[in-house]
Structure prediction request, 410 residues.
Amino acid sequence: MDDQGELSRLLTAAETAAPVEAVDVVAQDLLRRFGATRVSFLIVDLTGRAIVPLTTASQQESVGQADRIELHGSVYERVVRTQQLYRETTTWGERVICPVTNRGDAIGLLELLLPTGQDEATVHAVGEAAHALAYIMIANQRYTDLYTWGKRSRPLTLAAEIQHQLLPPSLTCEGAQFALCGTMEPSNSISGDTFDYTLDRDTLHLSLTDPMGHDIEAALAATILVSALRGARRNGADLLEQARQADQALAAHGPPGHATGQLVRVDLHTGQARLVNAGHPWPLRMRDGIVEEVALEVDPPFGLPVPIPHPHRVQELDLRPGDRLIMLTDGMLEQDAERVDLAAVLKGTRNLHPRETVLALTSAVLDAVDGRLEDDATVLCLDWHGSGETERQVASGADIRQASPRRTAP
Prediction:
């Protein structure tokens, strides 16, 4: 059977199985199809710093589940960073590890132990199966908590559960004109940070918000704010109307306090970028190796209990091909985190994908505060390639030209 037929059969097998068993069925299918002695799917956890074996199939009768595996310095990290298949010959056979990725979102890894001496056609077919596995997981995670459970290294509080549900389903996205990734490091007492993005035919929409307060109050404020922003956006509101509705919703229904935020829209055809800045820290822009703050007019936060002195303003955001834009919350800047030279970290990670860049930025802040954040630390990184790009150049789930190089030092 040709590759197209095999993939069709693989998708049918996954569809026939229950959602919670779809990945297990795929693993068993690959075990038979490639004569493998072992097939494992490892999912990247919420921190982006570890992987967790979600399912393993073996020719043996039973397989024990391995513990959480730290990515740093491992061959698994190499595959996630470079988004390229890895293969090596071992005493037990040929080890093949493939990225399971969709539009730059590194979902996990597919690892097989095959008989030695595999030809390129077989290895290519394994990579195709890994790409199909990304779609299988995305489709089935709507029906089961299995994949959500696999991403979590510890139970979440109620406030944290609410906060995570407000984040976009995928934290990373590659488009023809851009690549982006966001991450949110929660504090011990959840502070309600959120970020969001979406695409329509003509526009990339971005937002970053940070309400006052902690725990449930912050989570409830974030829920009102994000829901108002999404509702206005989905109803076709422009930036000013979106800001107005978010402001009014939070003032009318939120707990006492307010929220800072930034709303950005980028025209995918012209590259024109516009922004509303509601009392939020200035973003950083890296251009031609130089990192600078983007000096913006500061308008009032959302949800003030008194009438604001003037409406929010739409400002032009100078965005050119090759720029890297960093939007961040004040948890990245407060107290001991101030010791982190964010500009230096940005310069040192310029050749990395946004996925690795946001991880480096938040890791630097976590190290500075010994892992004890007083406020949520959230970063959204946008690489703007330019409106002249109209199609991604990919053969799988990632654009290899944009991928990070392998780590060369500990």
About this structure: The first strand starts at residue 38 and ends at 44. The CA atoms of residues 41 and 110 lie 5 Å apart. Confidence is low (pLDDT under 50) at residues 61-65. The longest helix spans residues 120-140.
